[in-house]
Write a structure and sequence with these properties.
The protein has helices at 22-31, 48-59, 85-88, 98-105, 124-132, 166-176, 192-203, 235-247, 263-271, 309-316, 336-342, 372-384, 395-398, 404-410, and strands spanning 2-7, 13-17, 39-42, 63-67, 70-74, 82-83, 107-111, 136-140, 143-147, 155-157, 182-186, 207-209, 215-219, 228-230, 251-255, 275-279, 282-286, 296-298, 322-327, 346-350, 353-357, 366-368, 388-392, 414-419. With 431 residues, the protein is of the alpha/beta class. Helix 5 packs parallel to helix 6. The longest helix has 13 residues, at 235-247. The chain starts with a strand and ends in a 12-residue tail after the last strand. It binds uridine-diphosphate-2(N-acetylglucosaminyl) butyric acid (EPU). Uridine-diphosphate-2(N-acetylglucosaminyl) butyric acid binds next to helix 1, helix 5, helix 6 and helix 12.
Length: 431
């Protein structure tokens, strides 16, 4: 296992580029299964989760070639229809192969992903969606087994107790492309990653309208073709770099971003006192020594993203007041609080709200990463803390941040990757 050793207190300065979005790349790689023809996906980040998706595709019998951020998928005649437990258990997002395999092969068997460290993660909306399209679904031996001779169009409402679902929308949208008739998804997720997926599907020959709004219409077609596509920039990586720059009182330019995908994050950072200038695909951010406390509530897009909650909380530890951070997407996603408190933060949990009392400084400590975004928060805290921080179990961060330490090093951070004595990472679900 590996850990990050960080010496805090360096101001981040310079220019850094954003990688392709993990949460676009994963469903788009799954969507390639809808065609017989090869597809080529560009700007794919080199991440553990992407490698897991490639393993799932190969396990189905699909030929996958990768290199230099390009993944070529050759799905012709793939014969397996199963995503096994050993792969799904390491990445929850594997569920997004369910819709494409079912639509293309008439049968899909995908291991039930269960819950994960960020809380219970039900899949009822995925199942509701594909059942509405005519699939028979059963749970057998821990697997979701879905069957249909030919799917048909339907109107399906995909809202749950916590609003829309990104991957349920993705799954139903992908399955609906090859149905007979028209599908209308109501309360669809509006995330940019859904638009990116829809854009790829349209390049494959799908007929889709309304992506990016809560109502998506899909007109089923008989077959889809191979296509070429470039993944959008990762808005969560961008937001994480923005927060890292702000807390270190830095001055950083982020290149190759899509600032329009970060409205809520930029707004909150400005409210906290950061200076942010947007110019095309560049974002220039200047931090300050102390911030104003800011209240944040996570919500589905275009609200403040749950995937930025932990990182923003790390910043709010250093204000001159109290911030309330409320989680409305994953009410239990607070595993980072106890680790931030080990570094001297004063955070209390009240239901699904964290009350963050600003402290004069954080102090470096050994801390343990527990999920992807929580690890990013600990790295941010380490960059600003006094002294040495060791973040262990960084395999979590490798799931979703490409070359994170190289990027931070290039901005002047003191961070290095070291082997740690810990053995055997416990299995983790997330993503
Ligand atoms: N939900 C249900 N039923 C379902 C599905 C979801 O009740 O069938 C609930 C969830 O429990 C949650 C809410 O709906 O309360 C939203 O979950 P969603 O389904 O949107 O999450 P997801 O699609 O499984 C994606 C991202 C997550 C991100 C969430 C929310 C990918 C691969 N994953 O997950 O990303 O947190 O949307 O924006 O796109 C991450 O990158 O670190 C990460 C966890």
């Amino acid at each position: 296992m590996e850990k990050f050793v960080i010496k805090g207190g360096r101001r981040l300065r310079g220019t850094v580029s954003v990688s392709g979005a993990k949460n676009s790349a994963l469903p788009i790689l799954a969507a390639t299964l809808l065609s017989e023809e090869p597809s080529e996906i560009k700007n794919v980040p080199n991440l553990r989760d992407v490698n897991t998706m490639v393993k799932i595709l190969r396990n189905l019998g699909v030929r996958v070639l990768m290199g230099n951020g390009i993944i070529r998928v050759e799905p012709r005649g793939y014969s397996q229809c199963e995503a096994p437990y050993k792969l799904v258990s390491t990445m929850r997002a594997s569920i997004c192969v369910l819709g494409p395999i079912l639509a293309k092969k008439g049968f899909a068997k995908v291991s039930h992903p269960g819950g994960c460290i960020i809380g219970p993660r039900p899949i009822d909306l995925h199942i509701k969606g594909i059942k509405a399209l005519g699939a028979g679904v059963s749970i057998e031996g821990g697997y979701i087994c879905a069957k249909a001779k030919r799917l048909h169009g339907a109107t399906v409402y995909l809202g749950g107790a916590f609003g829309s679902s990104v991957l349920a929308t993705a799954n139903v949208m992908m399955a609906a492309t090859l149905t007979q008739g028209t599908t209308i998804i109501e309360n669809a997720a509006c995330e940019p990653e859904i638009c990116d997926l829809a854009d790829f599907l349209v390049k494959m020959g799908a007929k889709i309208k309304g992506q990016g709004t809560p109502v998506i219409e899909i007109y089923g077609v008989k077959r889809l073709f191979g296509a070429e596509h470039t993944i959008i920039p990762d808005r969560i990586e961008t937001g994480t770099l923005l927060v890292a720059a702000v807390v270190t009182n830095g001055e950083v330019e982020i290149k190759g971003a899509k600032p329009e995908h970060l409205g809520a994050v930029i707004d909150k950072l400005r409210e906290a006192g950061a200076k942010i200038i947007v110019n095309g695909n560049k974002i220039k951010v200047t931090g300050r020594k102390r911030f104003k406390p800011v209240n944040v509530t996570t919500l589905p897009y275009p609200g403040f993203p749950t995937d930025m909650q932990a990182q923003f909380m790390a910043a709010m530890c250093l204000t001159d007041g109290i911030s309330v951070i409320t989680e409305k997407v994953y009410p239990e996603r607070f595993i980072h609080i106890s680790e931030l408190n080990r570094m001297g933060a004063q955070i209390m949990l009240e239901g699904s709200s964290a009350i963050v009392r600003g402290v004069p400084r954080l102090s470096g400590a050994p801390v343990m990463a527990s999920d992807l975004r929580a690890s990013a928060a600990l790295v941010i805290a380490g960059l600003v803390a006094k002294g040495r921080t060791e973040v262990s179990r960084i395999y979590h961060i490798d799931r979703g941040y490409e070359k994170i330490e190289e990027k931070l090093l290039s901005l002047g951070a003191e961070i290095r990757r070291e082997r740690s004595n810990e053995v055997h990472p416990p299995q983790n679900l997330g993503g």
